[in-house]
Write a structure and sequence with these properties.
Layout: H1 2-10, E1 16-20, H2 34-39, E2 43-47, H3 53-64, E3 72-76, H4 94-105, H5 108-123, H6 136-145, E4 160-162, E5 168-170, H7 172-177, H8 201-215, E6 219-224, H9 238-257, E7 260-263, H10 285-288, E8 293-294
Parallel strand pairs: 1-2, 1-3, 3-6, 6-7
Antiparallel strand pairs: 4-5, 7-8
């Protein structure tokens, strides 16, 4: 988080900033669709593993206060993001978070009450992070990668690096070692999904207020990345309910706020194949470069 936060502070004159989870961490300006490229000739990728709505608020607050901010903010919508409390990591940057919250609450009393509620709620948070979740390894590599972070030439001693946009780059060796295996189970995904707790009305209400604030300074676009086709073969798993509900709500938010949408949770709408995924939830660049601006 700190590396991406520093990138948000130091970047200048970029067309786009992409905010979201590890699902979007590989997106870079030289590997995106024509419609995406037209919108974002240059970009910074501020994707972080397990990003929450709180993290999106934090990065947006940083970008709003920049002297040379990006023209467009692209916000990834994940199946869990329309909820508060799916991560406690944001609390290390709580002062920045509360600055954005103060823009939404219209009053010090509201903000004080919110701070009390958040402090007690997050002290009791259960860690929802799945230790087997693929991209968590990236966080473990951050310290090792700091020396390489803003370089165009990549050091692949650990098979993972970043380019100067903040995008994750995997080595050819890593691609070979993690190529599609038809005998591997890509069908189950439970990450950050809580059955029957798909979205929160407060989170959606404040997200809409947040969008209206951003639109005063930025062009705002919403983005979804697809899940592996095999996920959709297990009909009773909660992730499918979350996907159905959240994609519908994403378009409702987009229509309400006159926003464009890139991509979808559904792989067939992006023409993404089974071999274009690392696991059940992370598309490879071969799939991500197909994401296009959708018609609402």
């Amino acid at each position: 988080l700190e590396i991406k936060k520093n990138l948000a502070y130091i970047s200048r004159n970029k067309n786009c900033a992409i905010l979201g989870s590890s699902h979007i961490a590989q997106i870079r300006s030289d590997m995106i669709s024509a419609s995406f490229k037209k919108l974002c000739p240059t970009l910074i990728n501020l994707g972080n593993a397990g990003s929450s709505i709180e993290d999106v608020f934090i990065f947006s607050e940083i970008l709003m206060n920049k002297s040379f901010p990006p023209k467009t903010i692209i916000i990834e919508i994940t199946p869990w993001i329309l909820n508060y409390g799916r991560s406690s990591r944001w609390y290390s940057n709580k002062d920045i978070f509360y600055k954005m919250k103060s823009r939404l609450t219209n009053g010090d009393n509201d903000l004080i009450d919110n701070k009390k509620n958040y402090a007690s709620k997050f002290a009791l948070l259960k860690n929802l992070f799945n230790k087997d979740y693929f991209i968590s390894s990236i966080n473990l590599l951050y310290e090792k990668l700091k020396k390489n972070f803003l370089k165009e030439s990549y050091n692949f001693q650990s098979n993972v690096s970043f380019n100067n946009e903040g995008s994750v780059i995997f080595s050819e060796k890593y691609h070979e070692e993690n190529k599609y295996d038809k005998f591997k189970d890509y069908s189950i995904n439970t990450y950050k999904i809580i059955d029957n707790n798909w979205t929160q009305d407060l989170a959606i209400d404040e997200f809409n207020k947040f969008i209206k604030i951003l639109k005063k300074k930025f062009n705002v676009v919403l983005l979804m990345t697809p899940y592996h086709p095999d996920v959709f073969t297990i009909k009773n798993q909660p992730i499918l309910t979350a996907i159905k509900i959240v994609e519908k709500k994403t378009y409702a938010i987009a229509n309400k706020n006159d926003l464009r949408v890139i991509g979808s949770f559904y792989p067939h709408l992006n023409n993404c194949k089974k071999n274009e995924f690392w696991d059940s939830g992370h598309a490879k660049i071969a799939c991500l470069k197909k994401l296009k601006i959708q018609n609402n």
